[in-house]
C-alpha cells in the first residue's frame, strides 16, 4: 500500500486484513480480497479415503517391512520351497497391528478436532451478535469473547469492557504460565463499547505472515476517518490474543481475527520436533545389516554348492525329479538367480521382522512406568512425570553428559528479597512479624547514619524506580474461604502476580521497605510512599526486557512534569552505560552478594528533557511501525535511549536450592556422568550455587576461562596454560599410581567459562599462525574436568555447547534439562531433553522428551528407569537375533543333507508361528518387568550405572557372543538329532521316523531351549512371568497335538498328521529332547559362573549382596540373630567373591542359616 506514514517501507511477505470485510474508502488503496483458510483445526494425519494407501506407504518405508514385502512377492512369483503364507502372514500381522494402533490414535485426534471445531462463537455482523461455530470463522471477522472463554483464533484486541482498554489473559494451555498477562487495545478503538460502534470501524491491518513464535508479532493498523489520511498505529505481541488462551477478570472484549485454523500460532506449534534416534536403534540397524550379509552369504553358498553337486549328470536329474523341457531350455544364469532367490526365501527368517513390533510395544508400554511412578509425583503441582516420546526410553540409561540450567532447575525460582544497596548504603528489610507488616519507619535497617537530603533524594528515586520499572499486575482483593479481603488495618493490601518471580520479589521487598505499588489505572501508576502519600506517574513507554539486552526500562512522567527513565538489569548491562554514581561501592556490594549466591540487579535512572523525550518517542514510534526487522530496529532504538545513566543502587534476591538437588548431582557424579551448568547468571552467583549443590567441592581445583582473564592474556595462552595444568596433574597422578601404587585423590578439576570467551573459542576462523584449533583444546580441557560451569550464556550458546560435545570424537550421549523458554534450544539439541514443570512456563516441558516436576526426580529417572529400560531392551534385541539364528541355522545345515534341493526342515505352521506366537510373549514380558537388581540398590549404588555405559550390552563382542551361542545351539540341535536318528528304528514298533519328524524334533528342542534360556536370564520372577513362560511352552505342545492330530480339510497336504504324537510316543525322543536342551544351555551357564567367579561386575556383586541378605533373612525367623550373623557371613562371602571363589559363598551362607535355625 502506498500510504505515507512513519516507518513505511516495502514489505512483500505480509497480509492485509479488512476488518469486518469492509472495503477501504475510494482512493485509499486497491481492494484485493485474499483467500485465507477457515478456522478448522486438523491435528489428524489421515482421512477415511487416504488412510490405507498413506499408512501402507509410511509402513513400507521401513527397511524391514519393505524387505519382507519383497520376499513375499518373490514367493508369489517364483517356485519357492516355502509357502507365501510363511512370509505374508507375519508381515500382515505386523502391518495390521501397527495400522490399527495408528488408526485408533488418529480416530481420537479426529474426535478432539470435531469437539474444538464445533464450539460456539459470537461474531458481530451488521451491528448484531450472531452465534456460529468455530470452524466457520474467517479472517477479518469481529469476535466477541466473554470472561473465562477461550479465544477461538488469533485476534487483535479492539476494545475491552475495562475503561483503560486492557484485558487479562492466562496462557496456561500454551506455555503453562498461570499468571494473568495484560494485553492492550488500540488507543483509537479502546473506547468502543457496543457492537454498533465496533461495526462502524473502517480499518485495515497489515501484519506478517503466520509464524510459530508465540511471543513475536509485527503489524500495524490503518484507521480511516472520513476523507482524512489514515492513522497508522503499531501492533505488537501485546495486542495479539492467541488461540487457546483464556480471558480473565474482564467481562468481554471485541477483537478481529487475523490468523485462523492451521495458521494460528498454536497450530503452527503442533509441528513435530526433529526425530531423535537412540543408540540402541542404531545398533539394531547395524546388526540387521550384518544378518542381511549372512543371509546373502548363505544363499550364495548354497546356490554355488547346489550347482557343484549337480555337475555330475547322474545327480542332475534323479529318477524322482525329472525336469520339464522348459526347465532344460532355461539359461543357467536365470536358473541360478531363481535358485538364489529361493534360498533367500528359505533363510529369510534370520531377519526378525517381529522384533520391530515387539520393540515398539515395549517402548510404548514401558513408558507408562514413568508416568505411574508415585515417587515422581509432586504434591504441590499435583502432577507426576510425563512422557512426550517413548522412543528414547533406553537412552536414559546411556547418558554421559548432563547439561542443566540453574534458575528454576537447580534452584526453586521462588525469590525472596534480601537487601538493597542505595548509593553505597545497604538497606535490609525486617521479616513480617506474626502476619503484621511493620511500620515504614521501623522496617528500614540502615547500616549508615540517617540519610541527609542528598541521600534521601537518591533513596526515594531508587524505591520509586523499583515500584515503577516492572510489569507486575495488582490483584487488589483475594478471596480466602469465601471472604473477600481488600483492606488490612486501614491500608490497602495488594496481591502481586507476574510472569517473572524476580519482579514480584522486588515489588514485595519495596512494600516491606515502605513503598507500596498500588495499581495501574488509566495509564497512571500509583504508589504509596512511606509518608502514606499516593504518588501518581503517567506511564509513557515500556522498554521490555529481553535476553540480549538483559535489562528493562520505563519512561514515566511525574506529577511535577519531569520525564524520568528508570532502568534495571544485570550489572554487565548497566555499568557500561553509567556516567555517574557510586559505581565502585555498588559494584563491590554486587560482587559480595554474588559470592553468597544471591541474584543481583542494578538500578539506574536518567532525567529527560522535553526535546530528549520527543526524540525518544520518535525513535520508538519509527521502530514500532516497521513491518520488517522490527526487533532489530527496536534494539537500536533502545540502545540510543538507554544511556548516560545515573547509578542508583542494586538489589539482592535469594533463590534457594531445590530439595535434594545436591544429592542428585552427587549421585550423577558417582554414576560417571559429567554435569555442566549452563546459566545466564553472573559468574560469582552461579559459582556459589555450584558449591552449594556439590557440583564443585572444596577440594575442586577451579580453572577459569573468562573474559577478565583473556583481557590480561591472549586466549591462545590461557587455553594452553590450562591444558598444561590439567595434563601435568594427570601425569603426576599416573606416575604415583604406576611406581608407588598410590592413588591421588586431588584430581578433581572444575572449569568456569563465560559467554564472551565461549564465542571466541567457537569462532570458526582463528587468526594468527600456529594458534591451532581452539575447539579441540577446549574439549581436551573439558574432558578432564568433572564439572563445568558456563555463565553469562545466551540461549543459542547453550545449544552450541551441547552440539559441540555431541560432535566430539567420543560422540557421548547428552541430556539437557531446564525449565524456561531459554532452555528449549538446548533441550531440542541434546539426545534426551527433559523439561522441569517450573514457574517460568511450560515451554521447556512441552518441547522436551520427558517432563518431571522437580530436579530431584532426575536421579530415579536415570539411575532406575533408565537402567532398567536399557537392560531390558538390550536383552530383547540380542535375544531376538539369537533365537532366529537358532531357528534358521539348522535349515542351512539341512541343505547339505538334501542335495541343496531347498527342502524346508520345518512345517509351514511352525515357520509362520515361531516368532508370532511361540516365542514372542516371554521376551515382551521380560522387557517390561525384568529387574536384575532391586530399585533400592540402584538408588543406593549409583556406580552400577557405569556397568551399562557406552552401550556396553550392545557392543560387537557381546553381539558376536550371542550369535556364536545361537550357532552352537543350532549345531547341537541338528547334529544331536541327526546322530540320534542314525538308528532309524526309533519307535517301539520298529517304525522309522521321516524328515518331518526329524524337523519337528529339532523345532521342539529349539522352542524349549530358547524359552528356558530366557528363564535362566530372568532375575525378577512374578506370577505373570511363570504364566507366560510356562504357558508359551504349553501352548506349543497343545498346538502341535491339535495341528497333527486332526485332518484339516482346508489344507492340500496332511504331512504333519500324527507326526508329533508319534514322536512323543518314542522314549529315545524324550531322552534326546532333554539331553539336547541340557547340552545347549550348559555353555552359557558355565560362562556366567566363570565370569562371576573371576571378574564379576559391580552389578553382579550387588546381586550377590542382595542374595545373601535374602538368604539370611529367610533362614532366620529370629530377626536379632539375623542382624548378628549377617555382617559376618556377608563380609566373608564378599571376600570370597573378590578372590574369585563365587561358588564358595554358599559354603558360608548355608552354615550361617543353619546356626540361625539352631539358635531358634
From TrEMBL:
Its cofactor is Mg(2+). It is an enzyme of class 7 (translocase). GO terms for cellular component: early endosome; endoplasmic reticulum membrane; plasma membrane; recycling endosome. One of its GO terms (molecular function) is ATP hydrolysis activity. Residues 33-87 form the P-type ATPase N-terminal domain. The active site is at 405 (4-aspartylphosphate intermediate). ATP binds at residues 405-407, 503, 545, 568, 599, 679-681, 792, 798, 822-823. It catalyses: a 1,2-diacyl-sn-glycero-3-phospho-L-serine(out) + ATP + H2O = a 1,2-diacyl-sn-glycero-3-phospho-L-serine(in) + ADP + phosphate + H(+); ATP + H2O + phospholipidSide 1 = ADP + phosphate + phospholipidSide 2; a 1,2-diacyl-sn-glycero-3-phosphoethanolamine(out) + ATP + H2O = a 1,2-diacyl-sn-glycero-3-phosphoethanolamine(in) + ADP + phosphate + H(+). It is found in: Cell membrane; Early endosome; Endoplasmic reticulum membrane; Membrane. Residues 845-1097 form the P-type ATPase C-terminal domain. It is a multi-pass membrane protein. Keywords: ATP-binding, Cell membrane, Endoplasmic reticulum, Endosome, Lipid transport, Magnesium, Membrane, Metal-binding, Nucleotide-binding, Phosphoprotein, Translocase, Transmembrane, Transmembrane helix, Transport. Residues 120-266 form the P-type ATPase A domain. GO terms for biological process: phospholipid translocation; positive regulation of myotube differentiation. The chain crosses the membrane at residues 60-78, 286-309, 340-359, 909-929, 959-981, 993-1015, 1027-1048, 1068-1086, 1107-1130, 1136-1159. Its EC number is 7.6.2.1. The keyword Protein biosynthesis does not apply. Belongs to the cation transport ATPase (P-type) (TC 3.A.3) family. Type IV subfamily. Component of a P4-ATPase flippase complex which consists of a catalytic alpha subunit ATP11A and an accessory beta subunit TMEM30A. This is Phospholipid-transporting ATPase. It comes from Oreochromis niloticus (Nile tilapia).
